[in-house]
């Protein structure tokens, strides 16, 4: 029994099943040597002309390139470079229709030849024996050589076979009709092909090299045999003409009797197949240093006048090839790329020649008839007989039509080489191969989707897991937070120690402060997180308490406002203005119900506390004034408490920030102003904020400290707010007590008169509880005034008069008018007496004026605002001591006060009162109208 | 006496088989419902929720529990048919009148309009969108399942569902491009 090798050496050939004998049609194009074409107008070079990945671009639009210059650099993944087929300029890099039945655009380099056809520097190699495999493979790789038989598999990958190669099979069969490219190449360049074989021989070291050529090419066989005579390992085999003996698997079977396993490659059985065109390209690359930039293309068909083989530069448009060979198209002209059996009809002739283009067939409609209508399968089994792969084409056809993809795979659809033999023999003209191609594409797509779905599922699961983990971590963090607090406390302790150290250094009292710091640190250790926050905490508590109070006030508030309250409120406001001018603000709009009054009182109390806390108690005036302001001015008592609370908190801050703060005059006045202007209670908060800001500034600016007057005023204020007559007496008493204190604090003893007057006043107030609030307010205003005046001791005369006035007012309502008149007279006098203090007179006038408006409580707020605006103006004008304007106002004022009192008078007096009130109202309205424009300012 | 023998023999047999079966039940225990796995394998895993379940597996479980098989628009008729075969029910047209062969789409973010809100990132069931807060986001086309869950949350509507471009690899021969008439 001969071994396989012996059998092969003896020239034995085997048979593959099936196969057909179509008309060869080769004589038209193989009669002349391969010709050269003129340079085309432009070259379209797709980046990808093979199986595998693109190279990365090396050139930009506008670059000038030389012939043979690499345009792309190969990366991984079976990528190959493409080279400039001639010298020229890169005109564009853009997607162009590809050499594919779909002509789907692919990224291509458009090269405009410059006509010089200038090569780059070449590095040919004379002796390959000095190079190792890697170097040779690298040369083949960089030359961009891909299988030129049709598939375009990168040759360097094949040459770098990890498996030992027993037989190198050279495919010079060219079984497909019409094509003669390999035939002509073998005839013209047999020597070079054999040299190319020897390169691969050195790399692969196969036992034998089998060169298969169909017996219809005797000239090629002769040429190759002559060229390969020197190499005993090259066995040239003439094989019987049969389609598709040029198929890789069929040729392997023919020459070696081995069968390539299903879905395998020839390398699996130690065989490697290379096309003659590829071998010629290898020779060129190695021995001439030229990359793959051109190939032999058969241009043939009945519509071509000079069918021939041509050297076509890669990227040459098919149209250029056809035109150069004399193309005269017929109706419904088809141009086929590849052979009639396996080629495809081009959708356009503006498609470039690529590395795998071996034939352009331009047949007329007689030689390659348009396929007729598909008829029913008659189950003749001719297709099965013709199939070189021993498949069952008819079965596959049914499954393909029914889209039974699993069945198709079961019947080895993927072993089909799409040779078209079945379609060729089918008497019913069923395009079997087309069905298989579609089915294959579908299955491939499905598998791809399966893989994708699998990946999506994985990613989905991974994401789910991640989200769960994150959630868990979050929960754990919450749990861990509490036990970890000791650690945090320790950290804070450290920080605090560090701070303490810093302070030690900075201050002279380092020892004391260090001690404090240490104490604090210890406290921190004991569990208190932030010892320094205690002050803030206290503040917060206070704020909370206030909020609570405010809530209560809100819920239990009585909405109805009676006239009396309004009057009282107006009077209170008037006094507040006075106070403001006097540098002590006390505006009391007589909160509409008990609760608000209480809240306001508390607010004030706190303000006082804050004032006391302030080391240098100068700023007190600023704070209380603000606090009271906000409560007073805000017509809506509900918001009053809130505003007051905020105001207080800020006032405290301001007080602390102020180092030396004396300018009570500045701050309160400003504060009052701003609040006064606010006709809309909603803007009260805003105004308060502004006022606060001003107060702070003022406090900082202030340099001297004289605020004894402040506290009493505050005390009085608080009593003002009390609208409830029952509490009036108490409040009045308190007010008095404070006033006394203030008086005592006063350095000079002029105030005895004041006190007594107040005392009297307060007792008076109690007589008629309703008037108590009013009286008290007046008293307070006076007390303030007095306090201030005490400093200069000039105004003593003024105060008693006022005191009397107030007592008068209250004593008997009937005498009120008279008393008021007297009071006014005295006030005028006093005003005149006051040389330096013009404002004193100005303010009361305003105050009373504002009460006028209260006759109509609804207009009270508006009027008050107007009055305030005027007061400001007046205050400014008063700086230059022009009292003439003041007095008439005072007159008016007096009538107003009378009117206010009349409200409470007996019916007899009421008539008069009504008249007076009417007059007063009319005046108030006039004024209001006059001042409407000024109000916002 | 014969009766006793018979009883003993049967009792012994019952005992032996009982032990064998009990052992087999433990040894060859099936962890999860195998039919769910099979259904899940058929579903397209877009995780789009168009079936009304939060993901493909929940729908697979629902089908195993008797839900309709025609609620998967991304799968198209092919999936319905496969599910119907597997479950032994009749294949129905897709619920909601969806097209039988859905066009494969992927999300595309118009990147200059993206404000970097990360809402789409949170919506994506397969983590196919990359980006960070106030940074431009983009879609990993290879990982996108075309579920369009990211379109709705986008506050600036900068996400489009774009049909996947055909390449030479995904191209199919057009049977109707050659004169073919179906003969059945």
From TrEMBL, chain B:
It is an enzyme of class 7 (translocase). The keyword Iron applies. The keyword Cell membrane applies. It is found in: Cell inner membrane. Residues 31-89 form the 4Fe-4S domain. Keywords: 4Fe-4S, Cell inner membrane, Cell membrane, Electron transport, Iron, Iron-sulfur, Membrane, Metal-binding, Repeat, Translocase, Transport. Its main location: membrane. GO terms for biological process: electron transport chain. [4Fe-4S] cluster 1 binds at residues 48, 51, 56, 72. [4Fe-4S] cluster 2 binds at residues 114, 117, 120, 154. Binds 3 [4Fe-4S] clusters. Its EC number is 7.-.-.-. The complex is composed of six subunits: RnfA, RnfB, RnfC, RnfD, RnfE and RnfG. Part of a membrane-bound complex that couples electron transfer with translocation of ions across the membrane. Belongs to the 4Fe4S bacterial-type ferredoxin family. RnfB subfamily. This is Ion-translocating oxidoreductase complex subunit B. It comes from Pseudoalteromonas peptidolytica F12-50-A1.
């Amino acid at each position: 029994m001969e071994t396989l090798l012996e059998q092969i050496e003896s020239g034995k050939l085997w048979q593959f099943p099936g196969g057909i004998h179509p008309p060869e049609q080769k004589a038209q194009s193989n009669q002349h040597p391969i010709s050269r074409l003129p340079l085309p107008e432009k070259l379209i070079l797709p980046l990808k002309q093979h199986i595998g990945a693109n190279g990365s671009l090396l050139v930009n639009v506008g670059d000038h390139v030389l012939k043979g210059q690499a345009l792309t650099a190969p990366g991984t993944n079976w990528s190959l470079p493409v080279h400039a087929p001639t010298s020229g300029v890169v005109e564009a890099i853009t997607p162009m229709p590809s050499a594919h039945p779909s002509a789907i655009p692919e990224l291509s380099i458009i090269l405009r030849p410059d006509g010089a056809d200038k090569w780059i520097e070449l590095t040919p190699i004379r002796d390959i024996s000095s190079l190792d495999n890697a170097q040779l493979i690298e040369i083949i790789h960089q030359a961009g050589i891909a299988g030129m038989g049709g598939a375009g598999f990168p040759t360097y990958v094949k040459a770098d076979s990890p498996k030992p190669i027993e037989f190198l099979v050279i495919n010079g069969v060219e079984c497909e009709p019409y094509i003669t490219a390999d035939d002509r190449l073998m005839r013209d360049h047999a020597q070079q092909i054999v040299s190319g074989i020897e390169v691969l021989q050195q790399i692969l070291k196969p036992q034998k090299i089998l060169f298969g050529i169909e017996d219809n090419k005797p000239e090629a066989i002769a040429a190759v045999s002559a060229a390969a005579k020197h190499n005993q390992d090259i066995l040239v085999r003439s094989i019987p003409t049969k389609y598709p003996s040029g198929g890789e698997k069929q040729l392997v079977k023919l020459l070696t009797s081995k069968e390539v396993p299903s879905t395998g490659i020839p390398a699996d059985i130690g065989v490697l197949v290379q096309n003659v065109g590829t071998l010629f390209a290898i020779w060129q690359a190695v021995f001439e240093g030229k990359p793959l930039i051109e190939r032999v293309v058969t241009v043939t068909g009945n519509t071509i006048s000079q069918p021939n083989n041509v050297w076509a530069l890669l990227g040459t448009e098919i149209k250029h090839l056809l035109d150069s060979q004399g193309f005269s198209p017929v109706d419904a002209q088809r141009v086929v790329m590849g052979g009639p059996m396996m080629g495809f009809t081009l959708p356009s002739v503006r498609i470039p020649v690529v590395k795998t283009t071996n034939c352009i067939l331009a047949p007329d409609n007689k030689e390659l008839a348009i396929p007729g209508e598909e008829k029913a399968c008659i189950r003749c089994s001719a297709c099965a007989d013709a199939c070189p792969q021993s498949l069952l084409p008819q079965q596959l056809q049914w499954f393909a039509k029914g889209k039974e993809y699993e069945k198709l795979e079961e019947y080895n659809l993927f072993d089909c080489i799409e040779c078209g033999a079945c379609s060729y023999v089918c008497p019913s003209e069923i395009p079997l191969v087309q069905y298989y191609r579609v089915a294959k594409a579908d299955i491939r797509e499905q598998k791809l989707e399966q893989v994708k779905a699998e990946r999506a599922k994985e990613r989905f699961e991974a994401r789910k897991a991640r989200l769960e983990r994150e959630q868990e971590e979050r929960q754990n963090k919450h749990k861990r937070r509490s036990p970890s607090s000791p650690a945090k406390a320790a950290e804070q302790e450290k920080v605090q120690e560090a701070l303490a150290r810093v302070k030690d250094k900075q201050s002279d009292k380092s020892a004391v402060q260090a001690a404090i710091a240490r104490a604090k640190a210890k406290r921190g250790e004991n569990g208190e997180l932030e010892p320094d926050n205690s002050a803030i905490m206290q503040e917060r508590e206070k704020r909370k308490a206030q909020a609570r109070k405010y809530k209560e006030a809100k819920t239990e508030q009585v909405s109805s406002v009676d006239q009396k309250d309004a009057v009282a409120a107006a009077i209170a406001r008037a006094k507040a203005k006075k106070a403001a001018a006097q540098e002590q603000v006390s505006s009391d709009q007589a909160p509409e119900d008990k609760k608000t009054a209480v809240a306001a009182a508390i607010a004030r109390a706190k303000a006082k506390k804050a004032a006391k806390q302030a080391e240098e108690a100068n700023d007190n005036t600023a704070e209380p004034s603000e606090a009271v302001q906000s409560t007073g001015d805000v017509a809506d008592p509900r918001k009053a408490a809130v505003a007051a609370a905020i105001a207080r908190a800020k006032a405290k801050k301001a007080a602390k920030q102020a180092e030396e703060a004396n300018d009570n005059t500045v701050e309160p006045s400003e504060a009052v102003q701003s609040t006064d202007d606010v006709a809309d209670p909603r803007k009260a908060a805003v105004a308060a904020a502004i006022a606060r800001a001003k107060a702070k500034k003022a406090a900082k600016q202030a340099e001297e400290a004289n605020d004894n007057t402040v506290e009493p005023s505050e005390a009085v204020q608080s009593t003002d707010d009390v609208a409830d007559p029952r509490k009036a007496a108490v409040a009045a008493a308190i007010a008095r007590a404070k006033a006394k204190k203030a008086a005592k604090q006063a350095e000079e003893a002029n105030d005895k008169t004041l006190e007594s007057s107040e005392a009297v006043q307060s007792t008076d107030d109690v007589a008629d509880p309703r008037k108590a609030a009013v009286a008290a307010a007046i008293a307070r205003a006076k007390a303030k005034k007095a306090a201030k005046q005490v400093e200069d001791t000039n105004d003593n005369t003024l105060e008693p008069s006022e005191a009397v006035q107030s007592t008068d007012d209250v004593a008997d309502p009937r005498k009120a008018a008279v008393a008021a008149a007297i009071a006014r007279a005295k006030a005028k006098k006093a005003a005149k007496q006051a040389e330096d203090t013009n404002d004193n007179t100005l303010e009361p006038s305003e105050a009373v004026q504002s009460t006028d408006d209260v006759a109509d409580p609804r207009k009270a707020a508006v009027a008050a605002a107007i009055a305030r605006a005027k007061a400001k103006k007046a205050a400014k004008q008063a700086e230059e001591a022009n009292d003439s304007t003041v007095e008439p106002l005072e007159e008016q004022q007096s009538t107003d006060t009378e009117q206010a009192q009349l409200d409470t008078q007996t019916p007899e007096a009421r008539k008069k009162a009504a008249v007076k009130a009417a007059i007063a109202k009319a005046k108030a309205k006039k004024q209001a109208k006059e001042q409407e424009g000024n109000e916002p300012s | 006496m014969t009766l006793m023998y018979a009883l003993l023999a049967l009792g012994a047999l019952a005992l032996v088989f009982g032990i064998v079966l009990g052992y087999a039940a433990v040894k060859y225990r099936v962890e999860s419902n195998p039919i769910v796995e099979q259904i899940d394998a058929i579903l397209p895993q877009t995780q789009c929720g168009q079936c009304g379940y939060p993901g493909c597996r929940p729908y697979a479980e629902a089908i195993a529990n008797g839900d309709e098989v025609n609620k998967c628009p991304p799968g198209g008729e092919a999936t319905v048919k496969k599910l119907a075969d597997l479950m032994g029910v009749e294949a129905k047209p897709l619920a909601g009148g969806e097209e039988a062969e859905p066009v494969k789409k992927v999300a595309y973010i118009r990147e200059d309009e993206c404000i970097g809100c990360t809402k789409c990132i949170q919506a994506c069931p397969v983590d196919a969108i990359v980006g960070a807060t106030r940074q431009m986001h983009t879609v990993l086309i290879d990982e996108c399942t075309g579920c369009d869950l990211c379109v709705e949350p986008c506050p600036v509507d900068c996400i489009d569902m774009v049909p996947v471009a055909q390449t030479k690899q995904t191209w199919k021969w057009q049977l109707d491009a050659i004169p073919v008439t179906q003969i059945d």
